[in-house]
Input
Amino acid sequence: MKILVLNGSPRPRGNTAKMAAAFREAAEEAGHEVNVVDVCRKNISGCLACEYCHGKGHGQCIQKDDMQEIYGYLQDANMLILASPIYYHGISGQLKCAIDRFYSALYPAAPGTLKKVAMFLSSGDPDMYEGAKFSFDGDFLGYLGLENKGMFTCAGSVTERVLEEIRKMAAGL
Output
């Protein structure tokens, strides 16, 4: 299975990165191909809402930035992992820009290969996940109809229990 992990955290050794690393290690041990993209280290502009992609662009975004790398991975991905710290009750702005740019690649439907999705979230408070959950449920489970492989959260420091749950999910794919 080909898996794309979009890490929306600017902290290279933070809780979100630790969750993504635990997943990657277990998934690769199980024989899966995992590509992790740190979107905070990429030059990704927000969607222009120009509709070029749904007209003259025939599904291609008019902007030529680092999203091109993600589009390449997305076309072959069987699973998508969205990983982010919680900022103002939602995912990071950097990850939101990348997701907004999915408009050209996932509208009106996801590539036929993309079947599964999971979300890794970290925050300082255990009651901060509703905004991200709303988007996950509506956009990825509802609209795209992807199979839910779980939402994994850690409030404060990531615990070994959470990392083990992530490893178990990855090993069972």
